[in-house]
Amino acid sequence: MNDIEKGLIARHARLHLHNANEAETRKKLIDRILEDVLGWTDDDISYEERVSEDGATTYADYIIRTANTSFLIEAKRVGASFSSIPQSKKLKLSGQIMKDDIGQAILQARDYCRKMSIPFAVVTNGAIWLIFPAVRTDQVSFAESNVIVFDSLERALGEEIGHFKSLLSRDGVIDGNLAIELLGRNIDQIEERRLNCFFKGNSTKLPNPIYPLIENAVLTAFSDSIVEADTELLEKCYVKNPDRTKFDNRIQMHLKKSESLFATQPKRPMRKKDSAALSDSLNSALSSSRPLAILILGTVGTGKTTFLQYTRKVTAGKFFEKSNDKAYPHWIDIDFRDFSKNESPISFLYKCLFEYLKKDDFFKEYNRSIRSAYRDEIESLKTGPMFLVAKNQDEFDKKISELIMADYTNIEPYVDKLLAYGTRKSPIFLVIDNVDQFEDESVQSNIFSDAIALASRLNLNLIMAMRESTYVNHRNSPTFNAFDFDPLHIEPPEIPAVLSRRFFMAGKLLSNISGEFKALNGANFKVSDLSVFIEIVRSSVLGTEVGSRIDVLSNHDVRLALRMTREFLARGYTDPAKALNTYQRDGRYTLPRQEAFRSILLGNQSVYSEKYSVIGNPLDSRLGRSNGELLRLFVLSALVKLNSENGSNFLDAPTIRDRLNSIGYSETDTLDVLSDLCELRFIHTSSHGKASLASSYYPSRLGGHIVRNLLGDFTFVENIMMDTFISDKTVWDKLKDISQAITEERNVVEKIKLRVNRTRAFYEFMESQYEPILSEASKRGLESIWLGNPLKEMRHALEENLNAAISSAEKNYGK
After folding, report:
1. Cα–Cα distance, 356 to 424 (Å, whole number)
2. Whether 186 contacts 174, CB under 8 Å
3. Hey, is 312 helix, strand or coil?
4. Among 59, 60, 257, 735, which residue is least crowded by beta carbons within 10 Å?
5. Cα 208 to Cα 218: distance, rounded to the nearest angstrom
6. For the segment 31-76, what is each residue's pLDDT rounded down to a tens digit?
7. In what order do the strands lie in the sheet containing 293-298?
């Protein structure tokens, strides 16, 4: 027991001796316990807050409140008779404890809490502390709930102080200890109040009826990787220029990049001056006595695999040309997408190398490589153990064949001998790709160590492609420290340029191919040239709002941009007959923007779900607590605002943690939210690594558009609403009723009006939910970046969007 706690116990004895009144008990004892022992601040404590009850006005003694939780304290004067207190530490809120004066105090505190929607209550006379749940949402009655009893101040500040502080201290309450002890959980979102659990959208909606005719071409042209394409198409589809946009005018935001991973800037092959960096390195291997070790680094979806194959087939195509009369360089791809964790990395490496040797023109022929690879061993056997057999050439050849076949069957010795020989004749490049397919760092580490050891032992040139974040996780390992890698940094290409070339490829594949599909009216519709539909889609995407959305939502991830375009082609439009007829008549047609955006958000689902969508939900933090539901948006908005005020700044995790803690959120909450925001690509770490409390953060372009554009978009808000928890029962019932009316309404204009009304009701509710967080931030003097309400700021833009939707419906379908 420290001096503060000893002093409070002595003070209680004096107050009790002089029969102090309630005001004196509060000021001299309870206030000091709350602040000096339990760590609550003036900003956390509200005194004598007004409570209206049956037309009369009363006042709650204390309300301890943060943005995340709250509890009420009903204080009595020191020495007030709590004669019915039993000896039990925990008991039900029924029976003897609910009688006499203590029962009245408990009921009074409970009723105050219910009127003010405060979940927990404390009744105390400064010495005895009774802690209980006042408002429950889990169907457990008040009488069946437990009260925790500290029956004396000596016990609360003495032998049981650890338990006392874990329940009522600021840190303990923020960490959820009070909720877990009283309710058995630290979440309050018990009921399933997400609209997508009750309304599944139009599950009978047909895909684009023309899609089966163009599917093969679309899958080929918009594949995540075009490595299987022939050299001519690969060259035409490859984008050499990086996206070097530094400022997004639409959202007035600087587009930052993570900090450099190396002391000196690595070469950037996407830029003109470094465009031949890898092919130059390959050529240097011809004269180098030391094998090359090259790292190809880039973020997710930047096209590392495509860059490697472009280098192999185009830039360095002549270097790897095969020859019938001499040895030639070898490029051996090892793609770990085909790897199973059930096998060891070294076995997989040998299996892939073995397959290459079996098929390659040089290595598969006995007279070109196999005989020479075994020459030293054959000579040694001939003059040694097999000297007697060697006199019979046929018998000796048979024994050598058996020896080679034994190695061939065992794979590893055969591979070792052939590659060891091959490297003496010409450079061999072992190209390791897609190691990041496995998030398990121990698996990645084993792959790296096995690949490096194999390359080193067999004198192979090693090229390894990986995400920057993967390199960050392993760069200080002994495996990487022992090998001197030359890094090449692959920057993301311009997404519109990638899509333009892929549309070109799809058009080429479908040129002059005819087909027939069933239109919406049931008639068969014939198309003489399917590439015309690709042209319609191309003109509806490139240089339009749809193309801009794909660019922003992909966030430099080419793979994701291609996936969104495939989804759009498959499900983004259901009336291609109308598009083709209009195009034939007018020479142009633009597909509806809203349908395209909705198809991108939904993917292959009939209703939005964050789990399956390419875009996360900024309005639901998935913490399981309604008071923390908008924490994602709160943090994201601050980062975007900081970027606008000072485009060069990162915000470090300790600062974010301290600001959130000051308004009532735990360190765990902070890390969960930061991890989710990074996973959803709304923000990035400056170090390229995973989210941690040691990282610094900055907003992505996507994060900026969420805050300053998409929150004002009808399609976006309406869809993410379907997967947002609605904590208020009245609002929930209203949204459900409107949703049911929408499913039953046949008139297109009236249906649009209902959808607009539902979106308004949802947005107004989320805007009101943001206010308590903002209020606490303002009360505690947080910096200006934390003091905006992005929902309120985007309200005008949303209203314009909603009114435009109604006007468009009335124009097209009549009032």
Report:
1. 18
2. no
3. helix
4. 59
5. 13
6. 999 999 999 999 999 998 888 766 667 888 999 999 999 999 999 8
7. 330-335, 428-433, 461-467, 293-298, 486-489
